[in-house]
Amino acid sequence: MKKEKPSMQFDSTDLTLLKHIQSDGRISNSKLAEKVNLSETPCWRRWKKLEDEGYIDQYRAVLNRKKLGFNVVGFTQITLSSHEEENTDLFEQFVAQTDWIPLCHCVTGTFDFLVQVVARDLDEYYERIHQLRRVQGVSALHSSVSVKEIKNSSLLPLD
């Protein structure tokens, strides 16, 4: 895995700008300019440069999982029978096409992947785990169901 280094130098204004944008992707340029003590045109230029350089990947809404009826969140450790490219590719393709897996990481240690699974209830969660079990190359699953969400954030520590 190639480690990316910032291609531009950030000053405190850039970092403050990024903090505000990651907290509120719908912030207006005029409001952002006010918060970072710039006039609107220089603020917009900095914002646009950060987008163009790839520091801002996308803008999206964070939906309320519980209000939408997704009351169960689980974390499943996946072990593959082998690390042949065919197995890993099949598993990664399944994950990429499955909307009830919002998060997946290939990890080091005693298992190969850690996935987050969302479901409306335990019956649906069981069915989803059963689908994971049937993916070719999966040899073992260990699941834990979350009983309380303490923190759920995608904000990066820009200090």
**What's the CATH topology name of the largest domain?**
Alpha-Beta Plaits
Oligomeric composition of the shown chains = single chain
Mean pLDDT: 94
Tell me the name of the CATH homologous superfamily of the largest domain.
Answer: Lrp/AsnC effector binding domain/regulation of amino acid metabolism (RAM) domain
Distance between the ends: 25 Å
GO molecular function: sequence-specific DNA binding
Pfam families: AsnC_trans_reg (PF01037), HTH_24 (PF13412)
Domain HTH asnC-type: 10-71
GO biological process, one term: response to amino acid
What does this structure look like?
This is Lrp/AsnC family transcriptional regulator. One of its GO terms (biological process) is response to amino acid. It holds the Pfam family AsnC_trans_reg. GO terms for molecular function: sequence-specific DNA binding. The structure is a single chain. With 159 residues, the chain is of the alpha+beta class. It has two domains: 12-52, Orthogonal Bundle (Arc Repressor Mutant, subunit A); 72-145, 2-Layer Sandwich (Alpha-Beta Plaits), CATH 3.30.70. 36% of the residues lie in helices and 18% in strands. It has helices at residues 12-23, 29-35, 40-52, 85-97, 122-133; strands spanning 72-80, 103-106, 113-119, 138-145. The chain has a four-stranded antiparallel β-sheet. α2 (29-35) packs across α3 (40-52). The model has no long low-confidence stretch (mean pLDDT 94).
